[in-house]
Amino acid sequence: MRVTKADKWIVNPLQKFINNSTTSGIVLFSSALIAIIISNSPWSTQFHDLWEIEFSIGFDGHFITKNLHHWINDGLMAVFFFVVGLELKREIVGGELKNPKNAILPITAAIGGMIFPAIIYLAFNPTGETSDGWGIPMATDIAFALGVLYLLGNKVPLSLKIFLTALAIVDDIGAVLVIAFFYTSDISFISLATGAIFLLILIVSNLIGVRNTVYYAIIGIGGLWLAFLMSGVHATIAAVLAAMTIPADVKVSEKIYIEKMNTLINKFKNEKPNKSSTVTNHQLHIVEDIRMYSKEALTPLQRLEHIMHPFVAFLIMPIFAFSNAGVSLSGDVLSQISSTVFFGVFFGLIVGKLMGVFGVVSILLKLKWVKLPDGMNKLHLLGVGFLASIGFTMSLFIGGLAFIDKIYIAEAKMGVLFASILASIAGYYIIRIANKKEVELG
User: Fold this and answer.
1) 122-131, 190-199, 230-239: which has the minimum mean pLDDT?
2) 63: Cβ contacts below 8 Å, ≥ 6 apart
3) Quick count: other Cβ atoms within 10 Å of Cβ 286?
4) What topology does CATH give the domain 5-184+234-249+299-436?
5) Lower CB count within 10 Å: N or C terminus of the chain?
6) Rounded mean pLDDT, 24-48
7) Is the pLDDT of residue 98 over 80?
8) What is the separation, in whole angstroms, between the first and last Cα of the chain?
9) Least confidently predicted of 228-242, 259-273, 407-421
10) Where are the domains of the chain?
């Protein structure tokens, strides 16, 4: 195969960068860091004013008007939640959550890791407007957590990666439910009923065998998402529901696919080449057949997830972080980090997640109701407890839903950022030590 200079110096290094599991976390962190730097620069006012610019969409006199910040959180983040929904369905259909026995441990850890942070937050903020932020420390940022884990290289047990992924996915389910039931505005039941009709259309389309992803995009965005946007129920919920309707079955089984590929490749071999850079007409048809069968051997769900993941990881999430992580470290920083909102978020993430993940699982291990996956020890589990404390994307997102007052939002951001940085460092070094030594605590 001929490798061009563009492939060697641009395309291949870029593909390697995108496919590296750590890079999405690095890009996400860099976006947040740049936002913080600009927020504390002479351009701070212009930076914050940028997100207040209003845009409208609509036709025939009917428009929806929101500022740029809301379009990012309601629109772009809906794409993020759509990919989250695809991941959830894949795990339920054929992943770690398919087998109830394998799912018990991460589900228990995730539930504990949601309940205890909320309790700790409410201990600092039992009443008043600030109590609305109890959902902020409940969430785990899967991209950051896995990014830190993959920085440790191949020495990390595969079982640890699977456990953290499954835990974070269950955590995402919890976060979606919390947003759906607790962080919604006044509900328009007419819009919600309209959304339900579009959801029913998507479900029926799946059942009768419609597999065209463009069709699902048109109905999902133009119908379901738009109806939810106007209903008062957060529009990101529509994205998760739409993802659950994407077909997860194949048209060509693995056995038939292998047979077809062997036949087509042999046909391609037996074709007489035309001794040029182009293929013959017969070879072209054979390659088209290979592409068609390859497409039908994959589920639409997996194809969409594979295509959209880099787009979400390297564009949508960095834009979200850039627009939401800006915190002014002005003279008010001391009051921000000494507020009950900051303490609730910070200790909710750091202490609450540890109590929920490490504490609850340790009790279950002591009672011999569960056992750790092969290759994991309790020091690994402690490290996972810290990595689960990395809230970032989801925590910042819920913080924007929980509060209207910009002071509370800034205090919550400070709590998320401080906790996520501390959790990243602690989780990294604890798991690094656990990889070097065979350690069993307790």
Assistant:
1) 230-239
2) 56, 57
3) 21
4) Na+/H+ antiporter like fold (1.20.1530)
5) N
6) 84
7) no
8) 56
9) 228-242
10) 5-184+234-249+299-436, 254-296
